[in-house]
Amino acid sequence: MSIPELELVSHPLCPYVQRAVITLLEKHIPHQRTYIDLANKPDWFRQISPLGKVPLLKVGNAVLFESAVICEYLDEITPGSLHPSDPLAKAMHRAWIEFGSNTLNAIAGFYYAATEEAFEQKRLDLIDKFTWIERHWQGGHYFAGDGFSLVDAVYGAIFRYFNVFDTIADFKVFANTPYVQEWRQALQERPSIQQAVSEDYPQRLLTFLKQRNSHLSSLVHSNVNQISTHLV
Ligand SMILES: N[C@@H](CCC(=O)N[C@@H](CS)C(=O)NCC(=O)O)C(=O)O
Fold first, then answer.
1. In the chain, what are the domain boundaries?
2. CATH number for the domain formed by residue range(s) 6-76
3. Considering the chain, what percentage of its residues have pLDDT values greater than 90?
4. Mean pLDDT on 69-81
5. N or C: where does the chain have the smaller number of CB atoms within 10 Å of the terminal CB?
6. CATH 3.30.40.10: does it fit domain 87-231?
7. Among 16, 37, 70, residue to substitute to test ligand 1 (most atoms within 8 Å of Cβ)
8. Which residues are catalytic?
9. Residues 6+ apart with CB under 8 A from 209
C-alpha cells in the first residue's frame, strides 16, 4: 500500500500525540507535524477537530481523530504489525491501552491535586495503577515479550512524566513494582520513545506543572534549585 500524504496535528507535551509519533517513527513513516497552542486553538483546527483535541491525523483530505484509531491506521498501512495477530491477545492489548489512558487521567489528578491530602490520595491511585500492570506482566523486555507493540508506545509516553517528577522529589510510585520499573527503563532506551518529544520537553513540562496552582506546583517552586541540578 502506498503511504498517503500525512500531517499530524500536535502539541509538544501531549502524551496522546506521542503515541502517534512513536508509531510513525517505529514504522519509518514520512509525515509532517504541525504544533498548535491548545490554550488558543486556531480556527482551522476547531473546524476540523470534532472533539477539539490533539492528535489529529490529516490523511490527504480526510481527518482522523483519537490516538488509538490513528495508531492502528498507521500500523495497518505499513508492513509488519505493532499489534498481536491473535484476536484475544489483540483485544488484551487494546484493553491495556485503554488502561494507559486511565493512568494518564490519574497522572493529571496527581499534578492538579490542590491539597497535600488530595495529592497523597492521587499518589496512591498511581501506585494502584502500576500494581495492576505489575500483576499482568507477561515477562520479557517489553509489554508482550521482546517485540515492541502499541502498548509500549502508550506507556513510553506515560513513564516520561516520571523522569520529570523524579527531579522534584522521590514519590516512591514504583517502589513495589520491579517489573514495571524494568519496563520503564527499557522503554526509555528505545530511540522512537526518546525522539518523540523535543529536547526541551522536561523544561516545558516543569513550566506547565509550576503553573497548575496545585500541591505539586508548590513542590516545584520550593525545590527549584535541586530540580535545575537534575536537569542540566
Ligand atoms: N482520547 C483522546 C485524548 C486526547 C487528548 O486528551 N488530548 C489533549 C491534549 S493531551 C487535548 O487536546 N486537550 C485539549 C482540550 O481538551 O481542549 C485521544 O486518545 O486522542
1. 6-76, 87-231
2. 3.40.30.10
3. 92
4. 98
5. C
6. no
7. 16
8. 14
9. 111, 164, 168, 216, 217, 220
